[in-house]
Design a protein that fits this description.
Blueprint (H helix, E strand, L loop, with lengths): L14 H15 L11 H8 L3 H13 L3 E4 L3 E4 L11 H4 L14 E2 L10 H15 L13 H11 L11 E5 L1 H12 L5 E5 L4 H9 L3 E5 L1 E2 L2 E2 L1 H11 L3 E4 L13 H13 L3 E5 L13 H4 L4 E6 L10 E5 L5 H12 L4 H12 L2 H23 L5 E2 L6 E5 L6 H11 L1 E2 L1 E2 L14 E5 L5 H17 L9
Parallel strand pairs: 3-15, 5-6, 5-9, 9-10, 10-11
Antiparallel strand pairs: 1-2, 4-12, 7-8, 11-12, 13-14, 14-17, 16-17
């Protein structure tokens, strides 16, 4: 075993992150060569004067990055590094391993929130067959113009809480992620600052960072972005755009009341900040609070789609733009994605205009209500936020769990979940000790089984979990 000790005077952020950075630097420099055994967690905690939890969280982080491997009863060892040159940019490295595309064999995916399977495949199959029959030429060619009914479908799907978007301001997109990135690309330039809540849909923040935008994070409370912090950031940092989820924020489930929305709209107008209102979960709810687009129509882009409510594979998405912005967003979307896929856009429009999308939505909501009831029953006694129509819950971890450690323990138990770091727009010293547990995947009995597995991990505590050391 090595006598190596870390230098915690360098690096940024909390102690566990500094320790993880020190371990990675030692591996890169050769101070910790492949096959070297790291100090036992308890010994290292004593030697450097930190808590065992700090060391455990750091070891879990470097384990998740693929730098070390743990063997029960033997300890933690430095893994063999690849010998070919790594030309990946730092920005790309920050994205690596954030979420696997395929769950490892035997693992339950509680880390995604796409619409539950409620028989929509049969409906979509029939619609796709009809599209192919009706439009054999269009599906064999590039999409050069969007039919008006695609925009009409988007306007119909997004209309909510008394707000009805202008059909001419609708841009058809390949999902909500593409919609958000297209808006930011159309209205900002590299170097511009984009503000997010400090817990958010972080993958779009990472995408924008890759595109040269500078990411800011604002404080949140039980309703989302705090107006006073929003104004402070506007005064000091001058963001061009702020991205918000006023109804059912992911992952906190916060919903802004009318007063909060009005305050956000007023500040945005005062400092000439554009708003992106992500309403992807709004369609699942009966929220009657006014849309930001109704309070500040001249500066608010609304994005929504079918992924959480009908079927993510259809890639149905739309942007409702303020006046005179639609053409710019449409061009940006084409440049970024290569253009809208006729087959998928026509399928999405027919799902909405035929009423089938709303029928599927009703079945999805009923299924989510049943699954949320299972969560309340099986996880009773633990502190979490959930709502009957929403496909995830936000779990407060009991002492002494840390989000990274609990995520690793859940993985070993057979369940993939998301720790709080997955939702941070950037580096942050704010720690919530929470994880998001999504439950729209799999059949209901598998969901029940997954909840019981997570309950066992919670009740077992750290004493029931042998970590990477």
């Amino acid at each position: 075993m090595t006598n190596w000790l870390p230098d915690l005077s360098a690096g940024d952020g909390p102690l566990y992150l500094k320790l993880a950075q020190s371990i990675e630097a030692a591996i890169d420099s050769g101070a910790l060569p492949p096959g070297e055994k790291l100090p036992a967690q308890r010994n290292l905690a004593f030697d450097i004067g930190v808590t065992l939890g700090t060391v455990s969280r750091a070891y879990t982080l470097v384990h998740e990055r693929g730098l070390v491997a743990g063997e029960v009863g033997r300890g933690t060892y430095v893994r063999e590094r690849k010998t070919t040159p790594d030309t990946t940019s730092d920005s790309m490295k920050s994205l690596a391993g954030t979420r696997p595309f395929e769950a490892p064999t035997g693992k339950l995916r509680f880390d995604a929130t796409g619409a539950s399977h409620v028989g929509q495949a049969h409906v979509i199959q029939e619609i796709l067959a009809q599209v192919v029959s009706d439009h054999p030429t269009e599906i064999a060619d590039y999409t050069r113009a969007a039919p008006t009914h695609w925009q009409e479908a988007g306007a119909a799907w997004m209309a909510r809480a008394g707000w009805v978007p202008d059909v001419e301001g609708i841009v058809v997109t390949q999902g909500v992620h593409a919609a958000i990135v297209s808006v930011v690309t159309a209205v900002t330039a590299p170097g511009d600052r984009i503000l997010f809540e400090n817990m958010t849909y972080s993958q779009v923040a990472r995408a924008l960072s890759l595109m040269g935008r500078r990411i800011l994070a604002g404080d949140i409370d039980a309703q989302g972005l705090v107006p006073e912090d929003f104004e402070r950031i506007c005064q000091q940092q001058h963001p061009a755009v702020v991205f918000l989820m006023p109804t059912l924020q992911n992952p906190t489930l916060a919903t802004m009341d009318r007063t909060r929305r009005q305050a956000i709209a007023t500040i945005a107008r005062r400092y000439n900040v554009l708003l992106i209102e992500d309403d992807i979960y709004g369609v699942l709810t009966n929220d009657t609070q006014p849309m930001l687009a109704a309070l500040a129509p001249e500066r608010t882009f609304v994005v929504s789609g079918l992924s959480k409510s009908v079927a993510p594979g259809v890639r149905g998405g739309w942007v409702s733009c303020p006046p005179h912005f639609a053409a710019r967003v449409k061009i940006a979307h084409k440049m970024l994605t290569g253009g809208t896929a006729f087959l998928l856009a026509e399928c999405a429009a027919r799902l909405v205009l035929s009423g089938e999308a709303k029928a599927i939505l009703s079945r999805v909501v009923a299924e989510l209500e049943a699954r949320e009831a299972l969560a309340r029953d099986i996880l009773s006694g633990h502190d979490f936020r959930s709502l009957p129509q929403i496909p995830f819950l936000w779990l407060q971890l009991p002492e002494p769990w840390l989000a990274g450690t609990f995520k690793a323990a859940a993985f070993e138990a057979g369940v993939l979940i998301d720790g709080e770091d997955e939702f941070k727009a950037g580096r942050s010293d704010k720690v919530h000790h929470r994880v998001r547990i999504a439950f729209s995947n799999h059949g209901r009995e598998d969901v029940r089984r997954g909840f019981h597995m997570l309950r066992n991990v919670l009740d077992g505590g750290l004493a029931g979990y042998d970590s990477a050391s």
